[in-house]
Design brief:
Elements lengths: L7 E7 L7 E3 L9 E3 L6 H4 L5 H12 L5 E5 L6 H10 L6 E5 L6 H8 L5 E6 L11 H8 L8 H16 L7 E2 L1
Parallel strand pairs: 4-5, 5-6
Antiparallel strand pairs: 1-2, 1-3, 6-7
């Protein structure tokens, strides 16, 4: 499993020395040398600088591998440079995309849904008034990925599917798009 955080973090700090000049710092100790790509028209260009260029290169290398699965959480497909990498991966027949995102977030998510590709799973609550949102990070961690005290991979997968699909058919009317 490979985890990628392509736009940095508020707790990353640039230290101009050493082999790895980027360190993660406790939020209370952060200096003015923060490394985070903020939403702006120039963010695509910022992603070409270190350390982001290395992250993007590694991300691209990982998703185009045979039988790769990309799970996105907190990404609404609004960055063309990231989308291009994902679309390149979709040309590989064994690639899978599981996106925890609001199903009506934007035109790009709608286009992904409209592909009607069984390799693309858009997981999110469609009802705007619902109090339970499948695509929220806390819901994913606290309710969907709950596995108990087991290390058995098959039991963990079954637990995730039961939690996700069981919620889909809950009597409270909250719908999950899958």
């Amino acid at each position: 499993m490979y985890f990628a955080k392509l736009h940095g973090s508020v707790s990353w700090e640039s230290r101009g020395d050493g082999l790895f000049p980027v360190v993660e710092t406790a939020p209370s100790l952060i200096s003015n040398d923060q490394l985070l790509i903020y939403p702006s028209p120039a963010k695509q260009n910022a992603s070409f600088a270190a350390p982001y260029s290395d992250l993007f290169r590694e991300f691209q290398t990982r998703v185009v591998r045979d039988q790769s699965v990309l799970v996105t959480v907190g990404y609404s497909f609004g960055d063309e440079h990231v989308n291009n990498i994902i679309f390149q991966a979709l040309t590989i027949p064994t690639f899978r995309l599981v996106a925890f995102v609001d199903p009506s977030a934007n035109d790009m998510v709608t286009k992904l849904r409209d592909l009607d590709d069984p390799r693309v799973w858009i997981i999110g609550t469609e009802e705007k008034d619902s109090t339970w949102k499948a695509h929220y990070f806390d819901t994913l961690v606290e309710e969907i990925l709950v596995t108990g005290n087991t290390d058995n991979a098959e039991e963990a997968i079954n637990s995730v599917l039961t939690n996700l699909l069981g919620r889909r058919h809950a009597s409270d009317g909250d719908g999950v798009n899958l």
